[in-house]
Structures are given as structure tokens and as C-alpha cells.
Design goal:
Layout: H1 2-9, H2 19-30, E1 35-38, E2 44-50, E3 54-60, E4 65-71, E5 76-82, E6 94-99, E7 102-109, H3 118-122, E8 131-133, H4 139-144, E9 152-155, E10 160-161, E11 166-169, H5 172-187, E12 193-200, H6 208-217, E13 221-228, E14 250-254, H7 265-277, E15 283-286, H8 294-297, E16 306-314, E17 321-324, H9 325-341
Parallel strand pairs: 3-12, 3-13, 13-16, 14-15
Antiparallel strand pairs: 1-2, 2-12, 4-5, 4-9, 5-8, 6-7, 6-9, 7-8, 10-11, 11-17, 14-16, 16-17
The structure holds zinc ion (ZN).
Length: 344
């Protein structure tokens, strides 16, 4: 599981450019599932079992990223962001531009602090003032490298182990969920009905992959597996998020103060009872910001009772997200146990 997460976090897939991850998920699912397919949007859909009820579990493959917008005469590359960034986290980072000729390394440049006015230093830097420097002298050199308008860009960040079974990487949101799906399908043995594990595309830009997959699969029950914000570090008060890293999977009741998912209470009761029965630690959460694939699955078709399971992750939507491997393992255990017990 450790190796799987490392591999997945070091892969690259801005929204709409999830190919590398989709290829990998296809191969992993093939090892344990009855059927694996890729739909027209590039969602990877793995199936195990037959008949009712139909469970649809999702984790998204995309990570927040950028796209080349303009190359100037001096060889600097300007970009747009895709997905929800706090823009100062983009400044002075190493990035990779994914071109048809391969990966090109660069950095996000900006004005150095030495020549900023005092007032400027106090303001948060915005993405539209940043550019990418690949070392080229002019526009021609950039084009000769194979870079063109529309190429996706992601952070260049290594996966690393921290103390106490914790890890840091980019894209833990939501490659941790992808790991849960792979392991879940591998470990799931005796259950009733059909389980679809769907690795979705374009979650970060409006839950788009999950929307078309739910239309196709007509599930009876939807569960999104994504990351959730803990409130156990400086800068957040516990009353805003009582979630703790290492405290176990999070059963979510409400996302984004009701603008997102309002989870089905019966599904949450089933998950909580299973967790208690198997002595798996878990946490419960009512959110005021952020949405997951479950928010679109539950209003698809004629309505699909759904919930969202969160893996606690600190500093999400930055290149230094932090998660606990224990939480990921307990999320897998909870879902395997719940599906084998069955939802009635
Ligand atoms: Zn996510």
C-alpha cells in the first residue's frame, strides 16, 4: 500500500489530463476485478459481483494544476490555474510542463522580495503575476522544446515519509482515495450485489467525471472517497474542524454547508455500526466548505442515497499535503467490512 501511494502521488494528472493515472488504475484493477473499462471521458470503471444492490464508489484521479496560456518573446510561459488554489502556494515552485515531446522542467518565477515596495510585500501574490521559467532565451527556444499553448502543468514534488507513519506529497488529494479503491477491490471477497469502483476524472473542476459515470451505472448507493480537512494544527480552531490526522476515516454528514452533499443518514448509520462492530476508529464531520463526487452522485438519476468518506489530509491543495498511512488503511478496512456486511 505504501508503494502504491508513492507511485500514484508521483504521477501527474491535471484535470482533463489524467491519462497516466488512468492507465495505471486500469492495470491495477485488472488484477482483481471481473471487468474493467474506460468511458469516453476517461473514467476508469472496475466491476466486481453481479445483481442488486449496485454500489458505486469513487475516488478522483485528477490533481489541481495549470495549463500553458501564452509564451512571451523572452521565453517566459504564462499559465492559467485549473482547480482551487490558494495562489501564494504556487510561487517559487518547481513544475513540470507535459508536452508531446515529454516532460520539461521549470520553476514559477516572480519579482524577488528585495525590489518589492513595502506595501507589495504585505499583499498575497496572485497567479496572474507569476510565470514559468524553463531556462529558455526566447520564444523560439520554448517552442523547440515542444511546449505549446494548452499543455498541462503540474507541481514537481517528491513523495516523502514523515515521522509516525505519516507521508507528504502532492496530490494525496485524491490519490489516497485511488489507493483505497485498488486495495478495496483486491480484498473484497464475500458480498452481495455489484460493486463498481470508479476512478473519476475532472473532480477538481466540478465533479464532471462522477456525473457521467453515475448516469451510466445507475447505482443504488454512492460513496465518494476523498480527503477531508483536519483541524488539529495551528491556524484552524477545533470548532471549525474537530477532525484529527490519525483518528481514522471520516464519515461526512454535510459538505459545504449544504451546497454540497447532504449524506443519507441510513448509509452513515450502516458505516458507523460496521466500524463499531469491527473496532475500526472513525470520525464524523459536518463541513462548511469543499465538495466531493458524492455531491453530484446523490442528485443523479432519480436520486441516489450517498455519502462521502474522508481521509484526513493536512495542507490540501498545496504541494505538501500530509496524510497518515494508518487512516488510509482504516478507510480500506471500513469499506471492505461494510460491503461484506452489506447495506440493507
Ligand atoms: Zn479531492
Amino acid at each position: 500500500m505504501k508503494e502504491l501511494l508513492k507511485k500514484l502521488c508521483e504521477m501527474h494528472g491535471a484535470p482533463g489530463y489524467e491519462d497516466e493515472i488512468a492507465d495505471f488504475m486500469m492495470e491495477e484493477f485488472k488484477k482483481s476485478c471481473d471487468k474493467v473499462e474506460r468511458d469516453r471521458m476517461d473514467n476508469v470503471i472496475a466491476k466486481k459481483g453481479e445483481g442488486k444492490p449496485i454500489y458505486m464508489l469513487t475516488a478522483h484521479m485528477d490533481e489541481i494544476g495549470f495549463v500553458v496560456k501564452y509564451i512571451d518573446e523572452k521565453g517566459f510561459i504564462w499559465f492559467v490555474t485549473i482547480g482551487g488554489f490558494y495562489e501564494p502556494t504556487i510561487s517559487n515552485r518547481r513544475v513540470i510542463i507535459h508536452t508531446s515531446k515529454g516532460k520539461i522542467f521549470g520553476v514559477t518565477g516572480m519579482k524577488p522580495p528585495h525590489i518589492m515596495e513595502e506595501e507589495e510585500k504585505k499583499k498575497a501574490v496572485v497567479a496572474k503575476e507569476m510565470f514559468i521559467d524553463v531556462g529558455a532565451k526566447n520564444k523560439k527556444e520554448v517552442i523547440n522544446l515542444g511546449i505549446k499553448i494548452g499543455d498541462p502543468i503540474t507541481f514537481d514534488q517528491k513523495y516523502e515519509f514523515l515521522h509516525d507513519n505519516k507521508v507528504t506529497a502532492k496530490a494525496i488529494d485524491d490519490r489516497a482515495g485511488c489507493v483505497v479503491l485498488i486495495e478495496l477491490m483486491k480484498r473484497l471477497k464475500k458480498f452481495k450485489g455489484t460493486v463498481y469502483a470508479v476512478a473519476t476524472v475532472q473532480e477538481e473542476v466540478g465533479l464532471k467525471g462522477a456525473q457521467v459515470a453515475a448516469f451510466k451505472l445507475k447505482p443504488d448507493i454512492g460513496i465518494a472517497i476523498d480527503v477531508c480537512i483536519p483541524g488539529d494544527h495551528p491556524g484552524i480552531e477545533e470548532k471549525h474542524s474537530p477532525i484529527k490526522l490519525g483518528g481514522g476515516p471520516i464519515i461526512e454528514y454535510i459538505e459545504a454547508s449544504g451546497k454540497g452533499l447532504i449524506a443519507d443518514p441510513k448509509i452513515n448509520k450502516w458505516l458507523e455500526e460496521t466500524a463499531n462492530k469491527y473496532k475500526i476508529p472513525f470520525q464524523t464531520y459536518v463541513g462548511s466548505a469543499g465538495m466531493t463526487d458524492a455531491a453530484i452522485i446523490y442528485i443523479s438519476q432519480e436520486g441516489v442515497p450517498s455519502t462521502s468518506i474522508g481521509i484526513p489530509a493536512r495542507y490540501i491543495h498545496s504541494p505538501v499535503e500530509v496524510a497518515s498511512l494508518d487512516d488510509i488503511e482504516n478507510t480500506i478496512k471500513l469499506l471492505v467490512a461494510a460491503l461484506e456486511e452489506g447495506y440493507v
